[in-house]
Request: fold
Amino acid sequence: MFSISKTKIKKEEGIPIMKKIIAGSSSPMLAKNLAKILNVPIANVSVKRFPDGECYVRLHEEVEHAIIIQNTYPDENIIELFLLQDAARRMANRIDVIIPYYGYGRQDKIFEYGEAISAEKMARLIEQDADSVALVNPHKQHIMNFFSIPSHSIDATETLASYFKGKVDIVVAPDKGAASMAAKAAQVIGCDYDYFEKHRISGSVVETKLKKMDVAGRNVVIIDDIISTGGTMLQAIKQLVDQEANNIYVACIHGLFIGNADDKILQEGAKEIVTTDTIESAYSRVSVAGEIAKLF
Reply:
């Protein structure tokens, strides 16, 4: 845990620090939201691609304290982040890196001999040109231990849940792994929560059902940290439709929506998809800027 505000850049008395936000290509909306809350300007930055795909970065103004906001997903955003850090390091006295979605966080340990631990390697590369780092809802909390610089994990669950106050009667996790997230969201909303669990009927048949709640006629939000291909979410929606739930909402912190997963979710029966702006899309109804701003 750390508080960025506790670390000050040494500067002659009476001369203000040039703190600026450097917005990467992945996070322009989030950068604007954070800039408004902190009353900090966004630096003028050029990011372009050469014909062969290589990234070019240039800062057009002086920065003493750089707050860089950029995802490490997809791959091209990683190189852009490194170049933004390099450009900032050549003039700034302090660099705080905010990574809304920490790509390559899934491989956080060795599952089979010979594997790379991508989450750890990314941490080593990022911290080379950073004085602190913050991640929003990393895939696993122990990822933060891979950083040797001050690091902070931001939880956007309560912010996301606030969107559903007065809209739903129950929060549902699509599996047991997301049950704690559903519980936290339910506390914010002021309603019940439940989660789906799997029961093996036979060697080839697995039944998925809610552990305890009856959802008939109730407004439900299914909540998870990440929606990638949406397979787990689709199963949960189908079960809720079969159990005659009323309005079904789908919510997540990080909306990847691989392979038109969003369209499939809506076609399956979801009334609305709600995500944060960690990965910016048409479904980004909630901003994590307020939670990030607390660090400063």
Q: What stands out?
A: Residues 5-9 have pLDDT under 50 and may be disordered. The chain has eight helices and 14 strands. The helical segments are 28-38, 75-89, 118-126, 157-162, 179-189, 231-242, 261-268, 289-293. The longest strand covers residues 192-200.
